Structure to design on (183 residues):
């Protein structure tokens, strides 16, 4: 069976998932800045924000997996002809790094919770308790907290650069941002 031609545009599902995942990353990051600064005098609010953060992380992971499935099934539109071979490689490398981080950060977050000696459950959507995958371990928890923190920063920086580059291309009259916005 001959390979099909690449699509001329992102599918509606691919576009929607792109923006939902992006929104989830931004919201989870903002929540992390707030929840980690709350004191023990605000435990209920802190618990609530952590649970929303964890739910967002799991939704980002699910959305990313769905995006990868759609990418494999439907492909991606070709890059503009004006992109040099170096720019094309940079695009593919940047997207690869983003996808890796979009999977790794939520997994590290889940492992952080699973190894926590406090054993506070993940309440998906605030009601569905999810099991811990590991026994508690302060040693592993400290490692996962650190890895999750730095991977999350790398994700936010990489996603910000990704967005900035898309805006620059848009301002130069290239259809990159328009294609992801409206097809």
């Amino acid at each position: 069976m001959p390979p099909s031609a690449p699509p001329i545009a992102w599918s509606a599902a691919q576009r929607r998932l792109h923006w939902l995942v992006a929104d989830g990353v931004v919201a989870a990051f903002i929540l992390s800045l707030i929840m980690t600064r709350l004191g023990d005098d605000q435990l209920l609010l802190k618990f609530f924000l952590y649970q929303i953060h964890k739910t967002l992380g799991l939704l980002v992971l699910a959305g990313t997996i769905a995006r990868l499935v759609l990418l494999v099934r439907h492909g991606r539109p070709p890059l503009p002809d004006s992109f040099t071979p170096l720019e094309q490689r940079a695009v593919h490398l940047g997207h690869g790094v983003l996808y890796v981080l979009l999977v790794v950060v939520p997994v590290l977050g889940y492992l952080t919770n699973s190894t926590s000696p406090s054993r506070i459950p993940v309440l998906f959507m605030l009601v569905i308790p999810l099991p811990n995958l590991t026994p508690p371990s302060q040693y592993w928890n400290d490692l996962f907290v650190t890895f999750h923190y730095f991977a999350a920063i790398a994700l936010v920086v990489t996603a910000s650069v990704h967005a900035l580059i898309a805006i620059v291309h848009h301002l130069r009259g290239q259809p990159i941002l328009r294609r992801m916005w409206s097809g």
The two ends are 28 Å apart (CA to CA). The chain is about 70% helix and 5% strand. The first strand starts at residue 122 and ends at 124. Residues 12-182 form a domain with the Fumarate Reductase Cytochrome B subunit fold (CATH 1.20.950).
